[in-house]
Each structure stands twice: as structure tokens, then as C-alpha cells.
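[User] Once you have settled down, look closely at the record that follows, and write a paragraph about the fold.
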Amino acid sequence: MRLKMIPLIIIAASISHLGIAHADANIERAVNEQVERVRSEFSIPGIAIAYVRTGKPPLARGFGVRTQGQSARVDQDTVFAIGSNTKAFTTAALGILVDDGKLGWDDRVIDHLPDFQMYDPWVTREITIRDLLVHRSGLGTGAGDLLFWPRSTYTRAEVVRRMRYIKPATGFRSGYAYDNLLYIVAGQLIEAVSGRSWEQFMRERVFAPASMHRSTISLGERLQLDNRAAPHAATSGPIRGMGALQLLDERDEEGPSAAPAGGISSNAADLANWLAIQLSQGALPNGHRLYTRAVGEEMWNAQVPMPIAPLAAPLARLTPNFLAYALGWEVRDYAGAKVVMHGGSAAGFNSMIVLVPGRQAGFAVLMNAEHGAAIQSIVYELLDRVLDQPRHDWVSAFREARERNFDQAQRELAVVAQVRNARSTPSLPLESYAGGYRDPWYGLIEIRKHDGGLQIEFKQTPGMLGELEHWQFDTFRTRWRDRTIEDAFVTFSLDAEGNIARVDMRAVSPLADFSFDYQDLTLTPIDRNKP
């Protein structure tokens, strides 16, 4: 198997210089047809595709433009943020350290990071490196993401330190809930074990041997590239995502603290190399390995069952029979085949990386827009081609499902508006709500009088500033000045003396991204707590 893969990897490693020669005609036709239809029907500025299959020349191609309204074209070297597809790279880095004998998947984290703490001392003592990667720690979905999203001033070390204050949502190893923070811990662990920062390790031990020379590990690096895609998202409309795409400020992405969970940017040419390495279980063109076959197999082994909710029409056929999280990857079945895949989102970007080991094929889809329906339309068209399935109109199916989701969300918002008591008034004068409030894990949030109303600011998140509009009783609604941030309801609770005892928050939109984990905040006035 290794010998069969080496010629393919050699081609993939040189793709940025050779360009596209004679790609698999079936896939090339599907790419050309589906991508242009998706771009047209969903108004996507730019898309890049990488495709690798044993015995076939690789394909790496760009479509559309890097920035909406401009002429610079996307090509195979155009760099896009890949979001949580970074997790497989961080896992591979740990696998390299396993091969080096520096650690084991089931080592306790505290044996390498003695100061690491979770909320529960027993969990602190027992949590392993494997646990960091498979979303079974007991943390709630997206718990603590406000520590880095939107871009905060916290360092990676400070994010890890603050995890000890986040209460678990479930029992340790009792179930699946997606989190980002423990991949940040994994990044710190790589530094502690290797003596190099996560960034250095990624450049020297992953990107360099994989010939991923145009991939970057920070926003600062990406901004230095001329051939980069710009981020776009729909920020207008009653629900974020419903309006027309708009160009976003590139500087508003995640900070470096979150890089091990979602900080890599890459392009079609480099990801063709990554796909080939994955399919060959770590083999490199020079006869060496990025990681051993044993590590490659371990990364694809199902670890934690993920909940399966039957999908309604028009996507019912996508309901899997099995679905699990592995090490940095999801594993599922589709059309009778095992599929290893992962999605990624960053501000203004979507990505999907898909591997079909039984067909020795894989592909990556990069998009400079936040649009799940668009990227999934391409993914399942390509999967059908790889698996020789009958043609299906995935564009129409995902568009219909998206419209249904938006319609349902609007109905839910309408119900909330109907039960609102708009004639109610706050219990206290507005100035009584002003002051500093502290959450144990996030830190300081300030509410102050401003232009006759109230203003709220998350002090560790520059740009997270907005007005508080009275909603009903002692609940207010945020109107963030940055409209890429999900609005929230802010509810003040009073004690028996009529003083503010605590403040709770929750997202307004039913479709809000889970990283806006307002519901995990428990704010109390700082004059009632020691700083």
C-alpha cells in the first residue's frame, strides 16, 4: 500500500508548480459543474477544491474571486482559513510526539502539564491526552469559547488557566459535546513536551516535511500574503446569515490563543499534499514518514459515539447508521462506505476535508463565505461521484433545508416577541444597573450609562461593545456595534433588598453559533466579590 501511494504523494507535493494535468475526469466534471452552480445560486465569491485519488493525478483548482466585487481570481495557491480542520493537524503533531516516545495517547495531562486544572479535581487527575481530543470531558458544547471568540486579549496560557472555573455540563466521559478549549490545552502540551511553541512545531515538524509551504499558522502570517481569500458573511437580516454576503474585517478573527483549535490557513495545493499523506497513513514522498501507520490508524479509530438525529426531508438520506468522533476527525458511514471527515468554520470562511479510505480518495473544499448549505452541496456531490452513486440535486436539497431552518427560527423569534410585555419597565433606575460585573471564567464585563441608555462591554474582547435596549421587566437586549456578533438577552436578578444579585445572558437567535456561549456566564457585581 505504501509503495502504491508514494507516486501519488510525489505528484501532490509538486502540484503548486505543475498545476492541473489530467485529473479524474468524473470528478473534474463534477467540480466544474457543481462549484459554478453553487457559486451562482448561493452568491459565493470564491471556492477552492483539492482532490486526490490513488492512481490518478491530483486536482487543485480555484473558482471565482478572492474578494467580492474585485477581480483577483482564486487559484490553487489562494489561502483560506480552515477553522476546526486545524484539529487534525494538532492531533498529527501529538502523533509525531507519540512516535518520538515523548508521550502516549493515554498519558495523564497533568504528568506533562502539572499546573493544568479542570473544575473537578478528580477530572484534573484523570483526564488524558486522548480525552483532550475526543469531546468527552464533560464540558458543554462550546463552553468557554468567549475566552477567544470574538478575538480576545487573553494569551493561550491564560485561556488554559481559566478552564478551572468552567463548570461541567455532564459527567466526565459520559457523552459527546464539541469543545475547542481542550485543543488549546493540547497546543500547550505540545510546547511543554517538545520545547517548541505549537507554531514552531507545526512549521518544522508538519508543514515542512509535508511540503505545505504556503500554509500559515496565524492571522498575521496570512495577512502578509497577497494571494489570500477575504472573509465574507451575511450579517444583516432578522437572523444572522439570512442577508446578503458582506466583506468582513480580517482582523476580527480568532486570536493566537485559539490557534491549535482553529488557526491554520491553507490552500488547495497544500491540502492535496495533506490528503495524500492522510490516505497513505503518514507516508512522505522521500520514503520517510510524517507519522507511523500505527498513529495514522489510531487517529481514524472511532472513540466517542456522537448523537444521531434523523434528518427530515430533503436531507433524510444523509442520516448515518454510525457516527463517532475519532482523534481530530469524525467517522461515519455514507452509501455503505466509511467516511472520515471534518468541517471548519472561521469568521467569513467554511472548509470541509473528506476522506474515503475504501476508495483511497479524499478531497477538500474551501470557501471564503460562511455558508453551510453551499459547502455541503459540493461535499455530497463529490462523495456521490467517488462512491459511484446516482446523481442527486444537492443544491436544491440543501437550499430547501436552509430555508426551512430560517423559517423555523423566525417563527420562534416571533413567539418570543409576542409574549414580550413591551409596556413593562425596569425595576430600578438605569444607573442602578451600571457597574462592573465579573464571571469566574471570562472575567470583567462593564455596563455603563451612555447617551441616556445603557452600554455593555466585554473588557477582554476588543470590539465587543454595544447598546442595551430594554426588552421587558429586568431583561435587556444587546445591539452589538459589530453586527457579526450574535445579540443576547441580558437578565438582571434582584435579591430581597432590591439589589442586583446576578446577571444571566443567552443568545437571541435560535441559530446562534455555539461559540457565543453566553448561557455559560454567571455575572455578579464586582463590589460583592473580591477581584
Summary: The longest helix spans residues 394-418. The chain has two domains: 2-101+181-407, 430-528. The chain has 16 helices and 20 strands.
